[in-house]
TrEMBL record:
Signal peptide feature range: none
Keyword Ribonucleoprotein: no
Residue ranges of every copy of the FAD-dependent oxidoreductase 2 FAD-binding domain listed in the record: 85-194
InterPro entries xrefs: FAD-dep_OxRdtase_2_FAD-bd, FAD/NAD-bd_sf
This protein's record includes keyword Flavoprotein: yes
Lineage of source species: Bacteria, Bacillati, Actinomycetota, Actinomycetes, Micromonosporales
Protein name, per record: FAD-binding monooxygenase
């Protein structure tokens, strides 16, 4: 859309990854886009901020997320690599251990990126604020909405400058609530006379400890590692290479059986309990590059806006304000990126009826990662939730799939393609994958004891 065809003003509440990506696509349709955030925003790519407590923990930019960001920001991957981020072949470069099974390694072209949350957000913020018509105002907190007389349309937002006592009332053609997990979107709807969306909650009782370590190229025999917790051993860890010649390592504990050590000197012994030796090797070899940071995020929440029959025009909730995920699965930033594409496509279809059209399409984007995360969380007996036959069947099937993936790289690729939101779940049941999963189930379970011997690297085509 040319500058002459753009019209109106869009307000984005929240300048985290989700809000920034929303602003990026809104800039294609609206002549003016104003972003507000209550935090003082750092000017570098290292410093975190209060509104993103998870910023100092390991983050995953899944393959679909990288693909979308490359589309929205040309030269994204090259720019990030120049800044020190590490391009990753998700299956060829990363050690994956799921349910005690080491996934067979293969070069696939399934491309991820090793980067810190703070570094990625700083880059996206620079690119978005350089766009014509986009303005970012930090230290302004969203306090409410402005509606027309019959409350059928939101026509603006009220914001309060930090340290001030006088609200600013700003008119807008569209308001996007991207204020994250703690958003007040449902309450704002209720104040306007609308129903709140139904909510689904899952508390995985997961705790994280993260720390950066100094990285020397070639020092260790791997590029990254993911050791997933399981009901049998509810501890795990993730290590990713990031900018600044650092490793970002996160230890994970689930429930009462997954207690994490409070003493950093005990991290290596904790990692020794994990299948595989990659995390132990790092902890006993590399020098810390910062203090440890502990995190226990609130429950995962999905708000079912797509089920509401009445919605005001001019208001959309976005990213974590719609669905916040268990960070252990690394889905949040990628889902926000995918939602940005949905928002762009919904706007191209017209502005009338935009909220309903957006929520209907966004729900389809959210379904797969939500089902993956919730299904995995519900494997733990202490996690409360409805365990349907579908959930039980899929969890049983995925456990067998992990056993098959230890022998067959094409099975591992199917799993990673779905987990990275590059393929639909049906790919896990394609004839070739299904046959190998069923055969591995007949062959019996093999434990991880011999895991220390990595599988040879082969090549598997990503399509299929």
């Amino acid at each position: 859309m040319s500058a002459k065809e753009k019209s109106g003003h869009a307000i984005v509440l929240g300048a985290s990854i989700g809000g920034l990506l929303a602003a990026r696509v809104l800039s294609e349709s609206y002549a003016k886009v104003t972003i507000f955030d209550r935090d003082t925003l750092p000017t570098d790519g290292v410093t975190g901020r209060k509104g993103v407590p998870q910023g100092d923990h390991t983050h995953g930019l899944l393959a679909r997320g990288r693909q979308v960001l490359e589309e929205l920001f040309p030269d994204f991957a090259m720019d990030m690599a120049t800044a020190g981020a590490v391009p990753i072949d998700v299956q060829g470069d990363v050690v994956w251990i799921n349910d005690g099974q080491r996934l067979a390694t293969a070069h696939t072209g399934l491309a991820g990126l090793g980067v810190t949350r703070n570094g990625l957000e700083a880059y996206v913020r620079r690119r978005v604020t350089a766009l014509p018509g986009v303005q970012l105002l930090p230290r302004h907190e969203a306090v409410g909405l402005i509606a027309n007389d019959d409350r059928t349309r939101v026509v603006g937002a009220r914001v309060l400058p930090t340290g001030g006592d006088t609200e600013l009332r700003l008119e807008a053609d569209l308001v996007v609530d991207a204020t994250g997990r703690g958003n007040r979107g449902p309450s704002w709807l209720a104040e306007l006379g609308y129903d709140k969306p139904a909510e689904e909650h899952v508390d995985s009782r997961t705790v994280y400890i993260s720390r950066a370590y100094r990285r020397t190229p070639g020092q260790l025999g791997f590029t990254g590692a993911v050791v997933s917790p399981s009901p049998e051993l509810p501890i795990g860890g993730v290590v990713v290479p990031v900018e600044g010649d650092r490793w970002m390592l996160t230890l994970i504990g689930v429930g009462a059986g997954g207690a994490l050590p409070s003493d950093p000197d005990a991290y290596a012994e904790f990692a020794r309990r994990l299948p595989g030796n990659e995390l132990y090797q790092l902890l006993s070899t590399c020098e810390p590059a910062g203090p440890p940071v502990r995190l226990r995020l609130p429950v995962s929440v999905r708000r079912r806006y797509e089920h509401l029959t009445r919605l005001p025009e001019g208001l959309i909730s976005f990213a974590d304000a719609v669905c916040s995920f268990n960070p252990a699965y690394g889905q949040g930033m990628t889902v926000a990126a995918a939602e940005a594409i949905v928002l762009r496509d919904s706007l191209r279809a017209g502005r009338d009826g935009l909220p309903k059209r957006f929520y209907a399409a966004a729900s389809k984007v959210i379904d797969v990662p939500w089902d993956i995360a919730v299904g995995a969380d519900l494997r733990y007996p202490e996690v409360e939730g409805v365990r349907t036959r579908k959930v039980d069947f899929l969890n049983g099937y995925v456990a067998r799939l992990h056993r098959a993936a230890a022998r067959h790289p094409e099975v591992g690729l199917a799993f990673l393609a779905v987990a990275n939101l590059m393929s639909p779940p049906q790919r896990l049941f394609s004839p070739g994958v299904l046959a190998r999963v069923l055969w591995s189930g007949r062959a019996g379970r093999t434990r991880t004891a011999p895991l220390a011997q990595p599988s040879p690297v082969s090549r598997v085509e990503p399509a299929g």
